[in-house]
Amino acid sequence: MRYIENPYDCPVTRAMSIFGGKWKPIILNCIGESSLRFGKLNQLMPAISNKVLSNELKELETLGLIERKEFKESLQRVEYTLSDSGKSLMPVLHEIASWGNSNEAKKIVKEMAK
């Protein structure tokens, strides 16, 4: 995890210190209200490597944003769900998704692709 120095106690800096980065918001959004296994998360995010996904899931679990549940079966099965703290981020992620769907965001991405 990468802690961001926050000498002015900025709430945005605090939040980004917890769930910011390239993959964490996407992982949280993918899990959402469901319970997902590692393989399904990997299918939903084909650009992320297994190692990075594994590390990000461990960090999210350490931060208390997701819960990892192991099932004692012949084949080990692990599922990830959002904790109450993780669920509290869903309205924020929905707003980010709404903005990402806006014409302004699409215009910016189109310019970035040039």
TrEMBL record:
UniProt superkingdom: Bacteria
Gene Ontology MF terms: DNA binding
InterPro entries documented for this protein: HTH_HxlR, WH-like_DNA-bd_sf, WH_DNA-bd_sf
Keyword Membrane: no
Domain HTH hxlR-type residues, every copy: 10-108
Pfam families from the UniProt entry: HxlR (PF01638)
Keywords, in A-Z order: DNA-binding, Transcription, Transcription regulation
Coiled-coil annotated residue ranges, if any: none
PANTHER family: TRANSCRIPTIONAL REGULATOR, TRANSCRIPTIONAL REGULATOR, MARR FAMILY
Name this protein carries in UniProt: Helix-turn-helix transcriptional regulator
